[in-house]
Every structure is written in C-alpha cells, then in structure tokens.
Amino acid sequence: MSTALQQDLPLITLEEYEALPEDTRAEVFDGQIYYMASPSQSHQTILTELLVAIRNYLRKKGGGCQVFPAPFDVKLSDSLLTIVQPDLMIVCDKDKLDGNRCNGAPDFIIEIISPGNPSDDYIRKLYYYKNAGVREYWIVDYRRKLVTVNYFEGNLLNVQYSFDSTIKLNIYDDLYIDFSDIPIS
After folding, report:
1. Which residue of 11, 51, 109, 150 pairs with 86 in a disulfide if CB–CB is 3.0 to 4.6 A?
2. How many whole angstroms separate alpha carbon 120 and alpha carbon 110?
3. Which residues contact 183 (CB under 8 A, 6 or more apart)?
4. pLDDT digits (tens, 9 = 90+) for 126-154
5. Percent residues over pLDDT 70 in the chain
6. pTM of the model
7. 97: buried, middle or exposed (CB in 10 Å: 19+, 13-18, 0-12)?
8. CA-CA distance, 152 to 169, in Å (whole number)?
C-alpha cells in the first residue's frame, strides 16, 4: 500500500489494536497499522540462538535486565500510537513493564531482516528506535550475512560486521556474540 493511500486511512487506537485477534502479527507507526508476515526458519533459528546467548549472560550477571523475544509489544508513543514488536529486546527498567508490554524504549533491540521488506528495519525502525531512546539497535541480515550495529549513546556508532565476527553489545562491558556459532539454515 502506498504511503499516500496509507495516510487516508483512519488512525488505529490502542483499544482497537488490543482487540485484534491474538495471532495477528502487526505493528503501528504513527497510528497506521502494518501487518507482518510469519518469520522464516532461518529467522527463528537466529532468534533462538541470540535469545539463549543473551538470556544465559543475563542470568549469570544478575541484576534487573530481562530479555524478551517477539511477539512482545513495545509502545513507543501514545500521541500518535506507535507499537512495535522487536524480534529481541533487553529491558532494564522494570517500571516500563506492565505485564502486557514495554511502555517506552527498551535498552537494546535486535531486528532480523524480513526479506520482503528490509527498508522497514534499516530506515523506519532505525528512525523510531533512535528517537524513542533505544540505546543500541542491531540489524541482522542473514541473507547478506551482515550485522549492523547502531549504538546511539556517546559517540554514535554505525558499524557492519560479517557473520564470522564476534560482536560486543556496547551496553555491556563483557557480552559478546559469536555469529560464527549460529547455524544458518
């Protein structure tokens, strides 16, 4: 659907979004709803590996941060409703969690590229995540075997790594993900 046509549609409310069938995969940007396709096997394999690595680190480390895989809503804005479902996120401020969603920016987000719509992760979500206050945002492109790290604190960082790299999460001093250990199907 073109942007011009999208703008003529009525804006969705939080109540309407919450009334969608539970198995509906959708996100909302500035009140406009966008439906998402189901993830591929490669997507799910990468997501599982990253989730386990981060969860294991957080368990050993202790502290208040939690990791959540999709689908789990993040409400970035109320004024023009913006709700996303990042593939993976770390939330350190428990006050942002209300039992149903994260209200406000997670500390860390990973999006795994959807082959049908890569600009969504590289452009739209980059814009929203940076402006909402996400500290670090990774874009994992398994078809190109690239990971783009966007670190928004201090000296802004935007670096690409290949899948044979070990990559540091900048929000932690000692958390590294070895992408060469992740099986790609």
Report:
1. 109
2. 13
3. 45, 49
4. 999 999 999 999 999 999 999 999 999 87
5. 95
6. 0.91
7. middle
8. 12
